[in-house]
Amino acid sequence: MSDVRRKVMVVGGYGEVGKSVCAALAASSPGEVIVAGRSLEKAEAFAARFGGALEPMRLDIEAVGTALPPSFDAVGTVVMCVERDTADFAHACLASGRNYIDVSASDAFLRQVQSLHDVARMHQSTAVLSVGVAPGLSNLLAKRCVEDLDEVDRIDIGLLLGMGDAHGEAATRWLINALLEQRRIAPGTKNDVMDYGFGWGRRTMYPVDFADQHVIRRTLQARAASTAVCFDPSWLFDALSALMNATPLAIAKRVYPGRAFVEWSRKMRVGSHRFSLRVEARGRRGGESVRVLGYLEGEREAERTGQVAAWVANRLRARQWDPGVYHLEQLTDLASLLGEVPSLSTRLEILDSRDPS
User: Fold this and answer.
1) For 29-45, b where at least 16 C-beta lie within 10 A, e where not — what string?
2) Which fold has domain 7-131+303-340?
3) What is the rounded CA–CA span in Å between residue 198 and residue 200?
4) Given 22, 100, 242, 348, which is the most exposed site by the fewest CB atoms within 10 A?
5) Omega into 356 within 30° of 0, i.e. cis?
6) Are 20 and 27 within 8 A, CB to CB?
7) What would the pLDDT profile of 229-242 be if each residue is shown by its tens digit?
8) What is the CATH topology of the domain spanning 134-301+341-354?
9) Buried b (16+ CB within 10 A) or exposed e, 232-241
10) For the whole model, what pTM was predicted?
């Protein structure tokens, strides 16, 4: 990355996650952070809170072609906080020698970016994927759980989200669509139950197609993996799930991802603002079957996702990682990240035992 390209552009910088990325970077690199998005008015309003530390910019990603416009001349790192279907913009960034970070939870999209590894190496740029809580911290917790195993048979990831937390519009819609898609491909599937500890107790889980379960099969050589979510308070989401399941699927796919229902879901702040990750890894060590449980608890999921992205951006600006496309667990470990950003977790516990099964 050229020394003249010192600035970090946060696309979707006034969204829930983008705000946290910008706030963290403004503290460490004032004057070198661009808040970008379709609405210049929203970008300016958010940037005004930081007294000149942030630069607002109007940017319509759909209008960006294969060559980046002059507004990118001083930008060396791009943090993407907007869901994308194609990797065209990521390709434009990497092919121009700019670093790229994405908080997407879609494995189909992340695979597209992963295919640009050779492009990134050729142009001396780096992309970091699986950045956030899930995927992100979930990948790192899984890596911690399997680091002493000789073979990894299965990794099951559970994510508990407090419905009292602030969740972005795009993230809420993505999760609703993921739950509807699971209903379509596996109608009538009986949900698993996980014990979360930390006073959370046993929770009914809802399978979702988060990227982490697919990514760790490739990066951690797990033979099988799954991801499921649950919510606090459990009764509220169980009621919403029952409502969604009682609605004919064709109607549900039109109504529930719609703006009105998504906005209602976001504003219904009931429950805690905490999140909890649970990873269960099964495998073998020294010829014996082993079960390792990992628990990580934190607060305000969107803010923590932003902190992880900001930490990655600072590492890229310091040129600490080689060119190419990588997932977070391929570049660092949980201890290193928590050591530098301790606010990411309020509690961490690893339990290792022989597998009774």
Assistant:
1) beebbbbbbbeeebbbe
2) Rossmann fold (3.40.50)
3) 6
4) 242
5) no
6) no
7) 888 877 666 666 67
8) Dihydrodipicolinate Reductase; domain 2 (3.30.360)
9) bebeebeebb
10) 0.87
Q: Which pLDDT band holds residue 48 (cuts at 50, 70, 90)?
A: very high
Q: How many residues does the chain have?
A: 357
Locus of tokens 């696309």: 11
Measure the CA–CA gap between 114 and 324, rounded to whole angstroms.
Answer: 9
The percent helix, strand, coil of the chain (3-state, each to 5) is: 40, 25, 30
State which amino acid sits at residue 302. Answer: A
Q: Where are the domains of the chain?
A: 7-131+303-340, 134-301+341-354
- The half-sphere exposure of 48 on its side-chain side, counting CA atoms within 13 A, is 6
CB 281 within 8 A of CB 145: yes
Q: Where are the alpha helices (DSSP H) in the chain?
A: 16-28, 40-47, 88-95, 107-114, 117-122, 138-146, 169-185, 211-219, 234-246, 249-255, 259-267, 301-317, 334-340
The first and second tokens of residue 251, run together, are 């109607």
- CA pseudo-torsion sign 331, 334, 338, 343: positive
* pLDDT 10s digits, 255-288: 555 555 545 555 665 567 889 999 999 999 999 9
Task: Check whether the bond before 233 is cis (ω within 30° of 0).
Answer: yes
Separation of CA 332 from chain center = 16
173-202 pLDDT, tens digit per residue, is: 666 666 666 554 344 444 677 887 777 778
